[in-house]
Amino acid sequence: MAKKFPFFKQHDAMDCGATCLRMITSYYGKSYPIEHLRDITHLTREGVSFADIGEAAEKIGIRSLAVKLSFSQLLNEVPLPCIAHWNQEHFVVIYQVKENEITIGDPAKEILKLSKAEFLQSWAVEEIEGIPNGILLLLEPSPEFYTSDSVVETNSKSNIFKYLLPYKRLIIQLLLGLLVGSCIQLSFPFLTQSLVDTGIQHKDIDFVYIILIASVMLFIGKLSIEFLRGWILLHIGTRINIHLISDFLIKLMKLPVSYFEKKMTGDLLQRISDNHRIEQFLTSSALLTFFSFFNLVIFGFVLSVYSLKIFFIFLVFTALDILWLFYFMKKRRLLDYKRFEQMSANQSQLLQIINGIKEIKLHNAERQKRWRWEYIQTKLFRINIQFLATDQYQRAGANLINEIKNISITIVAAKLVIDGKLTLGMMLSMQYIIGQLNSPLEAFVSFIQNWQEAKISLERLDDIQNSQQLEDIGEFHTHIPENQDIIFENVQLKYGGESSPSVLKNINLVIPHGKTTAIVGTSGSGKTSLLKLILNFYQPTKGTIKIGGTNINQIKNSIWRDQIGVVMQEGFIFNDSIEKNITLGTDFVDQKKLIQAVKIANIQSFIESLPISYATKIGDEGLGLSQGQKQRLLIARAIYKNPNIILFDEATNALDAYNEMIIMDNLNDFLVQKTVVIVAHRLSTVIHADKIIVLEDGEIIEEGNHQTLIQSKGAYYHLIKNQLELGQ
Questions:
Q1: What is the pLDDT of residue 154?
Q2: Domain 512-536+561-724 sits in which CATH superfamily?
Q3: What is the pTM of this model?
């Protein structure tokens, strides 16, 4: 089935569209890396649309057509595979359609066979004349698809073992310990045989004592080796985990802001867990499985020397045991996915209840929210019951096979002893050997499961390790042109693909050096997006941005942003002291600049009224601040840098009129000869700007100063009129 119906699991919550396209291309015989498909589908935090997937398919030579049709039409007329819109929030690949069974590839789960009722429940979006209809994206490869070159998929899977190389000495010690430990374990069955066949049979108590003392000494030696092995594995594992996460964070920090705005926070945190999972796989699962495999070979060989017949019986029942485990593996995986979904929903619901408790109490919504949580618990309970039942069936079957195996071996061994082909000591030795063989087999099955999980983790980490969207890589100007204007030339910006709306359109703008430029407009007009382009958080879809005559992309981001002080709408306060929050990015605190910053931001008196003043911890884990206090702190942070360029994005919208007036007065002297860009809804903060830009639906519709724009009685005039009641 895997060959006929290719399957790939989505790495992130919003990856389903790109992953479905990956399955389609694989079905037709070509392989594309998920990173490339994400790029051409223009994946955002909201995911992708059918139009985005269709455009991406066309780019790689697959014709696409979005349709709405009935199940009957899907059954009789639609070429497969195709992509279906699922539960109005997800995408799946439809591989095969029969009257009462539909085979789909769900990137969040796996290849599934659904009944018609189950399929329609998730696919149908509306009824037309009483017939359920759903949405499909029909896909058909063109000759161009087969003749074009595939994008080479780079991966770092082979590189994970590089983390073991610095510990070659310790690994050699582990291997030597393995060899010695295996030899010690191998001696126990022979000691048992000698104890029974020589000591007990000949009634030689001195020989029995010697064997027992030898067994105790060997056991102590084995215990010591295992103790040392545990410490070595702990040492290697801890070091590898630190290196993995450190390398991950180094690469993560080099990615542009646009990457983080496309990712869910949970997806990024999952990758931290993935690093730990890989460390566990390398140090525990992989190495211990190697040890187990070594023991399996040695003890298997000894068992075959004792009796080929018993060895064959052991192999047959072991194969049955493994097949039985694999039979349940798929069902357990499906239940795991379902349980994970419900546990995530449960956690999300609890967090919403805790974080939104004020709103819940204000609207008397306690019962409503509790019922919602109880509904999730009911679904989780049912899944846990299914999981328990599956686990019991699996264990019962495994125990039955194991008992039949032990009984069969005991009967055969007893007959061989009676026939004189084995001694009683040899029979007891074989029982010990079989017991030792069971553990490596269980470890082998566990290794296969861990490898599947580690493989998914590696693919997720490859998204970041192989990402080409790195900042400050290549040749850049090491200095910024002085006293230069910021120039926008025919700039267009889209956050999504070609079919997505333009956030900014045909922006031609000069932000003069040493002057104050204000940008005004209604919500959603593109003001903040324009600031993000100045900060080089995003690349324009079309057009260029220049600092004087130098393209902004030719200036190193770290150098460019070092010249800019910013107060963004979503400015972040860290769980740290007030001092470190204001002096963010600096190793040494300039007390003179710090005092100047808090004075201008009009927050000095508040800070110095606190018991430990600037050392007071703030953020989620510290002192709670009002929105106005947070905003003043962010203003102080921007001023502390003493930058040449300052960007204010609604920097005073949480302040009362009095504080705003004081801060704006304080800023007047500080902002002299600096390039200032102010975005504001509160127009009283922008009327003194040297230049005012009015944005509407991503376009500049007016430009001038306060007086000229008022006189023209255009959009700016009406904004002013609404807020300041001019023209009454």
A1: 56
A2: P-loop containing nucleotide triphosphate hydrolases (3.40.50.300)
A3: 0.73
